[in-house]
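Support request, please re-run this one:
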Amino acid sequence: MESSQMYAQGGTQTEASLTSARRAIQRCSTLPVFTGDTLAISIALLAIFPSFFNELTAGTPRITPWAHMSFIFVAWLFALAITGSYAPRTSRTAFEPFKRVARTSLITLGAFAIVDVVFLNALPPALFYFTLPLGILLIFAFRLVTHRISNKRAGNKETYVVLGEDGKDDPALALLTGSFHGDVDISGHIYTPAALAAPSPIDYVLQEVRNSDAGGLLLSPNSGLSLTQIQSLRWALEAANKKMSFLLPVHGVAAQRMQIQAGIGPTIVDLAPAQYSGWYFQTKRLLDVVLAGFGIFLLTPLLLVISLIVKLGDGGPVFFTQVRVGMNGKKFTMYKFRTMRIDAEEALKDMLARMEMPQDSGNKVLFKLKDDPRITKVGGFLRQYSLDELPQLFNAFRGDMTLIGPRPPLPKEVAGYEKHVLRKFMVKPGLTGLWQTMGRSNLSWEDSVYLDLYYAENCSPRLDLKILLRTFKAVLSKDGAF
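Re-run finished. Output below.
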């Protein structure tokens, strides 16, 4: 264990040199973020530069506007720095620092406002009602751009070696190899019994991590290590400038529902319960009425043109109505433009008979057939760009659906649901959602259920905005639209 103790005390000269080099790289990675913040604050202050001349009164010491602006500029950047906005781990994250930046900026300029009212009376009001919000918005914008650029250069994924008792067969790692493993890439596995059988388990694990060229070690809940061994391993990895991360036996929970209690005692992760009432849902209903109503009014010419084209295609009905299951299991009639032949139901029975499938089959509850011969030429175009779903704006306006939510299933699909899947009915189904923006019909049944449940558990304004932005990309790409 002498070698392990050496790592715990700081490592060898080689490790120290390597650590210094990597920390230098980390400092370089924060430079673009600092530069962006500098530009954002400079632009926000220069935008009200003339106002500083107007606020300098005769009783105020003759401090030039440039001095006022320079002091505010330095104080703003200094406040961001001391609150950890330029820490390497923070700089690599897109959304986590935003709350910190907004809070720090509000406190900093709030302090200036108090000092100005009590002592100076020299700062322009525009500094607080214009410069502050503009500066925060510009900081956010520059950081998003920087984050995107750095991700494209360095790659989005974190690379780990996994330590667990069962190696690759560890059930806790199943989601890391699934469709929604996040920004995680597993480059290797370390079998705990093999590590414990080595003369120095800590050195064994550390060497395996080095050999894999991974960024860190991911401990499975079934790692089989004692608390003392985990502590020693953490120190050794720190000396080698490698991360240690822990895989929790929890999935489908958004970060905003997690709260960490850490300090001298043990670390505890609290999971807040999912919320299904409150201002968010009230505001969402109001937006459904306003936006759906505005959309219907704005798109009326397009709706009329599509209706005419569908009618002239084969003389059949313009709309396709279907009973779906909504919030709390309540059934409703969903509207779509008809995209299939008039005899689509009879054709489906014939197709299932030819495929020797039961008549109630549907590709494991969902039935989505690529190059479906029942789809008309006009219908194929409408489906590619999701134009067939525009009549669902009426469903959203009425309250049967919402603009963003889980997929509305058929009653026969619900009859085949496992009990845990019914939790998706805690919220209204949506015109668009995670399922529609992450592959649509290319997704498997399990993946579509996982996405619906994730949304039902974690719906929030941030998630809705993210889905809305991805919807435009999904519609234009036409991926999975059939």
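Strands lie at 158-164, 184-191, 216-219, 243-246, 258-261, 268-271, 319-325, 331-337, 402-404, 430-432. The chain has 19 helices and ten strands.
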